[in-house]
Amino acid sequence: MMRPCFALALAIGLAGPALAQDDFEKRVAGKTAAEVNKNIQVLTALPAVELFPTMQFMAASLGVSCEYCHVADGTGRWPMEKDDKAPKRTARRMLTMVQQINATHFDGIPRITCASCHHGSVRPTPLPPLFDPSAAPRPIPAAAVKAPLPTVAQVLDRFVVAIGGREANARVTSRVYKGSITAAAGGEAIAFDMIEAAPDKLRATATTPRGRTVQGVDGEDVWTLDPQFGVHGETGFEAIRMRRLADFHGNERLGVLDPSLEVTGEQTIRGMRTLVLEGTLPSKQVERLYFDHESGLLVRRLVTCALAEQLPP
């Protein structure tokens, strides 16, 4: 089973103080979620480092955010152990049901997850999906595309030209981004700003009514500062994702970062006809890149990662 690695790059710091990191990976190495966190009743055997990605997967499966199940106190911190909300208690029963189904019918392999029934909605529907003319068009496999498709090298070379060319990009030493992000399921917009500097440094800040989150990358060091946990080092898929974002010249060497890329077909995204490239990264994550047919620009990047240890039986 794969899940989107959608965790947002919401914060990061140029030359973030290494001494401020509490080295989360070492602190929880070999420990379960129940040993590190309070009031874990179902996912007791889950590795502690995988608890947050699992919560993200569950939230996305239902199209909700953290506050659907959890409460926040007046200081902006989240006492996650509290059971004040009914949806959290319901979630425990649903997790137990999913574990039992997988253990009974799939030899403990997590073939069934929250997303199997919910599909981004709080209430699963018992009806088959009906035709929706407003729904996003399905991908067209390469074998079904009538016109000859370009090679991976041609797609990537055209992308480099579209962003200004290699020589022009080699002269760039920093970039600044500002904007807002709105979840696909709706909700409040999150304001963010991001600073990149060569080589491989990044600082991103996201601001919500509940506080500010900052993440930073400086080479191999990856850290997060948030209202709930303070400053802590990042590990696992989150650290991999952040280092990839901080690769200052990564756009000019996508084929080197993912040599397994193949042209798998086409898909229409917001009215744009795109070419789809897919490959498997060294981290075993599956990556899909969507390039606009007209401009050659990269308009979407989707990464999925294995769910094997997210919902243990």
Description:
This protein has helices spanning 24-28, 33-36, 51-62, 86-105, 114-118, 152-162, 166-170, 236-246, 254-257, and strands at residues 2-4, 140-141, 174-181, 190-197, 201-208, 211-218, 221-226, 230-233, 262-269, 272-280, 286-292, 298-306. The protein is α+β, with helices and mostly antiparallel strands. The strands form two sheets. It has a six-stranded antiparallel β-sheet, covered by helices on one side. The chain has a six-stranded antiparallel β-sheet with strand order 3-4-5-6-7-8, with helices on one face.
Descriptors:
6-stranded antiparallel β-sheet, 9 helices, disordered N terminus
Strand content: 25-35%
- Characterize the largest beta sheet: strand count, sense, and whether it forms a barrel: 6 strands, antiparallel
| Radius of gyration from the alpha-carbon trace, in angstroms | 21 Å
CATH fold label of the domain at 22-118: Photosynthetic Reaction Center, subunit C, domain 2
Could you tell me the number of beta strands?
12
Helix/strand class? alpha+beta
Overall, the morphology is globular
Q: What is the name of the CATH class of the domain at 22-118?
A: Mainly Alpha
Question: What's the arrangement of strands in the largest beta sheet?
Answer: 1-12-11-10-9-2
| N-C termini distance | 14 Å
CATH architecture of the domain at 22-118: Orthogonal Bundle
Helix count from the secondary structure assignment: 9
Task: Supply the CATH superfamily name of the domain at 22-118.
Answer: Photosynthetic Reaction Center, subunit C, domain 2
Output the helix-strand order: EHHHHHEHHEEEEEEHHEEEE
